[in-house]
Structures are given as C-alpha cells and as structure tokens.
Amino acid sequence: MAPYEPEQNTSETGELRVGRRKAARYVVPVAVAGVAAATIGLVPALATSGDPKLPDVTAQELIEKIAASDTEQLSGTVKISTDLGLPSFGGDLAGGFAPGSGSGGDGEDGDGKGSAADPQSKLMELASGTHTLRVAADGPDKQKLSVLDDAAEYSLIHNGDDVWAYDSKSNEVYHSESAGKAADSGKGSGKNDLPKDVPSTPKELAEEALKAVDGTTSVKVDGTAQVAGRDAYRLVIKPKQSGSTIGQITVAVDSKTGTPLKFTLTPASGGSAVVDAGFTKVDFGKPAASTFDFTPPKGAKVTEEGDEAKAEKHGFTDGGKEFGGKEFKGEEDLNGLNVIGEGWNSIAELKLPGGQGLPTGGSGDVPPDAQRLLDSLGDKVTGEFGSGTVFKTRLVNALITDDGKVYAGAVTKDALVKAANDAK
C-alpha cells in the first residue's frame, strides 16, 4: 500500500523532534556484550496480516497520537526476537557476563554470591534469541512481566511498594522496595523499581526510537496493518544520512488507542530484523487484581536488595562492575565523554579508566569466555590514530584504540576509524 503522504523532513515539522538519543546508550567501555544488550532499547520487525482501510493520517498526527496515548491498563502476550549477530557459545551469552549470573544465586558450590532472580542481570537475556513474554499493567503501581521458557518461567512483579522477581528454574526470589517506600524508610533509592535499561514492550521501544527523530530523519506513514487482531497504522522512521547501521524502524500503532503494538528495526546491511517485538495477543481491559499478587513459594531462597552487593562473579562485581581488576563506576568513569557528529551518525568518544586499551587473555585478567567473545567480534584496524580493535554487532560497533580511547555508535567501521583519525 502506498504511503499516505510524501516523506517528511523533520526540519520542516519541528514538533516531530522528541529529543536526542542518549549517547551513553552506545557506550560500554569494555564489554561489547553490554553494548549489544543496550541496543535493545532501539529495536524490532513487523509481521502483520491484512491491510485494513483506515482514515488517512500524517506522520505528525500519528506521532502526536502516540504521545497522547494514556493506556494504563492492558494484558497480553509479546514475542521478541533479537539477532545482533553475536556468536553463540552454547550458553546464555548476555546473562553469562552479567553480575550474579551463572549457576544460580548461591551457586552449586554454595558460594552464596548473587541471585539468579536479580532482574538487573536476568532481563539482559532478552538481548539475544527469541522469547515469549506475558505482560500486564494496571496503572503506575501495578505491572507484571513474565518471561516464558519451555520448562521454566521468570516473573517480575511491581505491586504498590514492593517489587518481586521469581525464577522458577532455580526456585529463587529477589525482593526490593519501590522508590517511594525505599526513600521513606531511608533504605536507599529503590533502584530496582522495574528496570528501565531493557525496554520490553512495543511502547517502550517506540519511545526510545522517537528520541532519535530530528532533522536527519525521514518519517512517514506507510500503509496499515493488523496486529494481534487490531487495526494499526505503520509509522516508518529512516536515517537520511549514509554511514548508519540502521536501515529503518517500523512501528505499528493501534488506530484507536495510539498504543504501539509492534516495533521493528531493520539493519542497513539487510537481512532479518535486528529485533522483532510485538503483541500476539492484547486486551485493553483491567487485569484481575490477583495478577499482581505474589508470595514466595515454599522452600524458595529469598534475596533482599542489597544482600548481593558484595557478590562477585567472573571478574565482575554488582557494585563496581570490575573487569580485569579495574573498577568501573558507570558515568563517573566515562572520562571526557564527547559526542561526535549528529543524528543517526552520532559517535560517542571517551577514554577508558587507566588510559590504556583492553587487557588481553595472556595477562590473565580476562575471563576465558569474555576473551573468546572479544576475539570473535574484533577486527584489528590501523590509521592516523594508531591501532586498535573494532568490535562489531549488526547494529552497534565500537572501536577501542590501543591507547585507551573508545569510539562507539550505530555506525560503520569506516565511520569509527574516520572519527578516530579526525580526533588526532
């Protein structure tokens, strides 16, 4: 079906700009697995049936409809598939390098470190493979997300003052207090209020994509579709610039509620979508109150937020994210963060802690699995900047120079090398 209006330049429709992408989303100084996982905040593919006839709308009107959507009650099933082009090591790639990951919370060896139910690491598994989720929401204080496996289920429940996570495979429970209760009790920030780092619904994914809309972007309504039995418009977002690894993003928007039902990112290199996330079933009615009830099962190990603070696994720690004996403290260690370029071709430039490149397997500082990941992803490059290694996924690439600088973004290898050369 032909688009409803010609391609729009967002410089002509200033209101289309929802904000700039967060440069930090492209920046993980050492672990490329983390870079790849973060890209799930941008992504997915559109599988639909039928082309329903709907009233014509402009891209501006459809974006306004998304922004005005006030859906707070829904339940349904979401299927999400992610293909970042990472190699398979016969196990859980994303989770394997996450804090507290591995053989359960107290471990087969009884080391008492971490929790298999910790959402900060568990939800990183959505960064690879195909997963089926059940989601439910009833306003800002009641949400539930369950990740379904063949023989197990992981559930994350926010109900009032409490956030519970349960991993049926390990029979472990993780409990934290919501931000409001934690602040009132003086126990901390309530940082485990449902994690925001890994968007898992089409609406969250669409909001992240719309942050990239600016004068470097083409936006149009390109026909209609039917998703989960509901009529929807197809909003297509494309970079105008060359050099980006992003081909286009397609969002299916419910024609009645303005709620994104499905979200697709296709890479510029072609082939399958990097991620395909969308409802297969959806109901905008009020979920039953019992949906959000949770009591730890008999015999389950319960970990309270903070108990895992000193847990250490595979060279990482939950508090400091140690790697190679160096403590990474998040934004505090993004030394001299600088954003090169604009729009879809933005490249984040920063210095690694210590002012040197990645440690090598020969130093004994890198866990074997992590070294295998780095070796399989890396391409050695040279230029006016010196030498370094480019780590690649189908979406985000990162150049780490031997003198400890990082250039990262959803851009090609050549664009990273040029940025490093120009910075000299």
Task: Please tell me about this protein's structure.
This protein has 424 residues and is an alpha+beta fold. The protein folds into two domains: 8-304, Clam (outer membrane lipoprotein receptor (LolB), chain A); 316-423, TATA-Binding Protein, CATH 3.30.310. Helix content is 15%, strand content 32%. It is built from eight helices and 21 strands. It has helices at residues 32-38, 59-68, 93-96, 119-122, 179-185, 202-210, 368-377, 413-423, and strands at 8-9, 73-82, 129-138, 142-148, 153-159, 162-167, 172-177, 217-227, 230-239, 246-254, 260-267, 275-283, 301-304, 312-313, 316-317, 335-340, 347-351, 378-383, 386-392, 397-401, 405-409. The chain has a 13-stranded mixed beta sheet. The chain has a six-stranded antiparallel beta sheet with strand order 16-17-21-20-19-18. Strand 6 (162-167) and strand 7 (172-177) form a beta hairpin. The longest helix is centred in the last third of the chain and has 11 residues, at 413-423. The N and C termini lie far apart (49 Å).
